[in-house]
Write a structure and sequence with these properties.
eight-stranded mixed beta sheet, alpha+beta, about 20% strand, about 600 residues
Length: about 600
């Protein structure tokens, strides 16, 4: 249990309450006189006369006198401390609450120009950044040393946002806009947690993520929404780079915004800087990082640029609806419309899907954004039932048993009435547009991502092996030890590298047999055979060891399993015989469907 600030003050006040007040008063007055005589402490009038006051001498004397009276009172009558602490705790309990924080945030944003519009909100953020960094520059001497020419560092950082986001995304494949909302939440949560640690639990009870999003937007008189940011720079055309997109960013929009208008531009942040200006501001790292990775862009010479202009434009994020029709359209280069049928016949379909978010939302099946359900249905044709034409629906599981010729016939149909799906829209894996999910590979990946400790024990020799796996996003690391029956141990190595389904461990203990360090492997495999899963340890050479982990996976279609099912299984063979003797009739295609 960690005592809070009020706990400490309360205990201190209880301690001094038991003092003999008469004796204490005589002692404190004597000590105060001695201190004043020895230190020659000036009176408020003397101090304010000599000090470079910020207002008037009279106001300075009044303020200093009040502080002096407070200090003297605390020294001469410490038994009143408990009463003061009780009052302070009551005041803090009223002030330090989430509702109060919300009200203060709304007032501050209004002071900085937040007026219920996105532009007003962005302007408020820029103003806060400008003043915040001005305070930092005042108290931090190193800041002024590194940025001596900058009068408004915070404003510059805000204006550089389009350039810096584009650079970090292109060079390091990192776009902090993806974690924008989470970063704000975590920062506020850490601050609230620190206040709770000092004052005690219950003062600031933060809402969870979605409610926090609502409250944050309310401070700007806006409403929450998820947006897609499109990032573009004037040099993108030179390096053959399409605009970068970041989807699902936690953001705020105006209350009257049409939440189903996904083409409306919500905001635009555009910045243009001369390269010489960036150098003067010590911000030429933007050009330096691009030049450092210029090999990614056909060795384009970024240092030859005279200026950079980048923009971030925001749109509402369109929800993904897995009902693709081949004739759905999306905007491609120069806002030209292309169909999903056109897209699936391209040589670099995956690259187009990755580059153009409009393609992903118009053609989710072609872009492999939708998992295939074997029982998902698609429209095959109309059949007559009691004199009425009704849709004849088939499943992806049924389609998987058809011949390749029938696959081609069904998967190329363009028409499905209403909300019904075509075969290509419902069954992208069966139609050959996408690879199926490898559930066993996913199980292996999950094992590496979640397993922090693993051991192996031999009951015959009493030997054991222990694997410790530190799982972090920044620097994953694992190490392994071997113990014999007498408790003697051997370090089998550590690693930060994974190659496919194997962890490679090196720099183990020195090995005399081969005059080198011990190296080891941790191999993870899957099996669909019951009773074959387990952990196995072996010595593959005098200085090499292997720890093999076999986990159960019933998916028989994967390539990592030790027991896969052949395409000539009994079920498939019977199906082929049936198709040979009883072929499916050609589907009737009506003229109006062509």
């Amino acid at each position: 249990y960690a005592p809070t600030l009020f706990d400490i003050l309360d205990q201190l006040s209880m301690l001094v309450t038991g003092l003999n007040q008469t004796d204490y008063t005589e002692i404190s007055e004597g000590l105060t006189s001695l201190i004043h005589a020895a230190a020659n402490i000036p009176s408020p009038e003397e101090f304010c006369a000599d000090f470079d006051v910020t207002t008037t001498v009279e106001e300075c004397v009044g303020a200093v006198s009040a502080v002096t009276a407070l200090v003297n009172g605390a020294i001469q009558a410490p038994w009143l401390l408990r009463d003061i602490v009780g009052y302070a705790e009551a005041v803090v309990e009223e002030l330090v609450s989430w509702e109060t924080v919300e009200g203060l945030a709304e007032g501050i944003m209004s002071m900085y120009g937040a007026d219920g519009t996105i532009d007003g909100g962005l302007g408020a953020i820029r103003g806060i950044m400008s003043d915040l960094f001005a305070v930092i520059a005042t108290i931090d001497p190193y800041f002024s040393y590194y940025y001596p020419e900058l009068e408004d560092f915070g404003g510059l950082m805000f204006d550089l946002l389009p350039l810096s986001v584009a650079t970090e995304t292109l060079v390091w494949d990192y776009n902090f806009l993806e974690d924008f909302g989470d970063s704000i939440y975590e920062s506020v949560y850490s601050l609230a947690q620190g206040i709770g640690y000092i004052l005690g639990e219950g003062y600031i009870e933060m809402p969870d993520g979605p409610e926090f999003h609502v409250d944050l937007c309310a401070a700007f008189d806006l409403v929450p929404a998820n947006v897609t940011a499109m990032i573009s720079c004037d040099y993108f055309e030179d390096i053959k780079q399409a605009p970068l997109s970041t989807e699902g960013i936690s953001f705020c929009v105006e209350p009257d915004q049409d939440m189903e208008d996904y083409s409306a531009e919500l905001f635009s942040m555009e910045s243009s800087f001369e390269i010489s200006t960036l150098k003067e501001a010590n911000m030429d790292w933007i050009v330096g990082e691009l030049q450092y990775k210029s090999w990614k862009f056909d060795n384009f010479n970024f240092t030859a640029l005279q200026s950079m202009t980048c923009s971030i434009k925001g749109y509402l994020t369109q929800p993904l609806v897995c009902n693709e029709k081949p004739l759905n359209t999306f905007l491609w280069k120069d806002d030209k419309e292309k169909t999903c049928k056109w897209l699936r016949n391209r040589k670099h379909t995956d690259k187009i899907c990755e580059t153009y978010y409009t393609a992903r939302y118009a053609c989710p099946s072609t872009c492999c954004m939708c998992d295939e359900d074997p029982m998902a249905t698609f429209f095959r044709r109309y059949i007559e039932v009691d004199g009425v034409n009704v849709p004849d629906m088939k499943t992806c599981k049924w389609l998987a048993t058809r011949t390749p010729e029938n696959h081609g016939k069904f998967c190329t149909k363009n028409f499905a009435p209403g909300d019904l799906k075509t075969a290509s829209g419902a069954c992208p894996v069966t139609c050959g547009f996408c690879e199926g999910r490898d559930l066993c590979q996913e199980a292996i990946d999950d094992f590496f991502a979640t397993t922090t400790y693993l051991d192996w024990y031999d009951p015959k020799t009493y030997a054991s092996v222990y694997l410790y796996n530190y799982i972090t996003d920044d620097y994953p690391y694992a190490y392994m030890y071997y113990y014999d029956q007498y408790g003697n141990y051997m370090y089998l190595g550590g690693t930060s590298e994974r190659y496919e389904n194997t962890l490679l461990l090196d720099y183990g203990d020195y090995c005399d047999e081969e005059q080198r360090s011990i190296t080891s492997k941790v191999i993870v495999e899957t099996t669909s055979a019951l009773g074959m899963n387990g952990t196995y340890f072996s010595q593959s050479s005098p200085c090499s060891y292997e720890l093999k982990v076999v986990i159960f996976c019933e998916d028989s279609t994967n390539t990592n399993s030790t027991n896969t099912t052949s395409s000539w299984s009994g079920r498939n063979l019977v199906q082929k015989v049936l198709e040979h003797f009883y072929p499916q009739p050609e589907d009737e295609i009506l003229d109006w469907q062509k």
